[in-house]
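Worked example 4.2. Below are the chains of a multi-component assembly; read each line carefully before continuing.
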Amino acid sequence: MLHKLTVPISAESIAALQVGDQVQLSGIIVTARDAAHKLMIETFVRPPQVVEQTELYARLKELLAGGVIYHCGPVVSQDDRGRWHFVAAGPTTSIREEPYEAEVIEHFGMRAVIGKGGMGPKTLQACQDHRAVYLHAIGGAASLIAHSVKEVVDVYQKDELGVPEAFWVIRVEDFPAVVTMDSHGRSLHAEVKERSTEVLQTLIAH
Amino acid sequence: MQQPDLTDQFVELIRLASTDLQADVEDSLRAARDREEEGSAAQGALDTILENIRLARQNSTPICQDTGTPIFYIHYPAGWSTLKMRHQIREATATATARSYLRPNAVDSLTGRNSGDNLGDDFPSFHFHEWEEPYLKVDLMLKGGGCENVGAQYKLPNVTLQAGRDLEGVRRVVLDAVNQAQGLGCAPGIIGVAIGGDRGAGYTRSKEQFFRPLNDQSQVPELASLEERLTQEANQLGIGPMGFGGKTTVLGVKVDTLHRLPASYFVSASYMCWADRRRTMIYRDGEVAFE
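Applying the procedure described above to all two chains together yields the following structure tokens:
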């Protein structure tokens, strides 16, 4: 089933999503990967909270309430007027953010995480507790996904973290993804691994 | 002999590798697409992949944003300066990065700073070999981080998998590696396996398997049949494209051997994502050709 989602996403639209559903997402989302998650957790989320009221924090609170984080380190280009463009922008492996993501979802009130490869039990639990989903983009489909990025709205921490690790604020239209972890406790990744491990046991049984 | 400046040609080699997938890989992905169930998430993933390959080629943009570690294998005739080639390729790498064919990917492990131009310590990576041929051959592989992270090295015997020091043991650990990887290496991938060597040589040889065309079979009959059996059995695992579940988990398995120490029996398995980016440049009699 195909669902069209618009950011900010309501709890009701998330509840309607089931594992295996396809979605097309539109609105403003934020890229964040390893260094960005470490920064969010250490600077904004975990006590002792020394939340400096930085522009970045204020912006994230606004964008991520009902919002979406995309695990992505893009290839970008800059035009003559200094504007940034996404040239290639597929998902990166999400499991590296497993130690952080549940807290980020809770802290900011996020509704979705986009990435690839799925995430673990902590994030799955957070999706249940806070009405969120994990959306799987097609790994490597970077040129195609870049076409759904209509505008680079802003970038934070580019000089400090480098291009792949920066927070890119982007406007997307009909960004294609598949629900692989829903808000009802199902994970396609856990189910596929369980089955493949059973087959492996058969293949290597004496 | 006057050694030519091939910097521009190296930029083109990088552009082709990053944006124009080899036909054998694309054909194999198309065949995989037709095998999957109509309307399944697996088939949807392969449709997206095939459309992405087309777009990347048409627009000359990277197939995948993770343009990986550029790994160069350079076979050169006697008398060529490897130092000059190294300089030219490093310059070409920085130019290709400025043109957005490559993402800046070289990160200082101590400070976390990205160099911004893909130049760093052993970055890009070089393997120089002088040979007896009268021409220059440069093979380039772009090896992404997602699939690099799911590579695995086993020390046989392995009690958990009941894998002994023989080809049956190799079969067991390779299937385990594919199962551990699930969709994380961007399945359907290609598995390169090296039996033997030390830890470093084993991994290097396992990655060199990715330069072999997909239809290439090992010259050693036992290894050829192991390659075929592993490909078939890995696909029985049902992990499927992107790990969504499905019929194609790997596009192929390539196996090679190295001598080892009596005390060591390593099996090194490297994973190459479906975006198997490899290209070859030949320089002969003043002419450049790309394969």
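Take a moment to check your reading of the output against the notes. Strands of chain B lie at 69-76, 125-130, 136-143, 152-155, 189-195, 250-257, 266-272, 277-284, 287-290. The CA atoms of residues 42 and 188 of chain B lie 10 Å apart.
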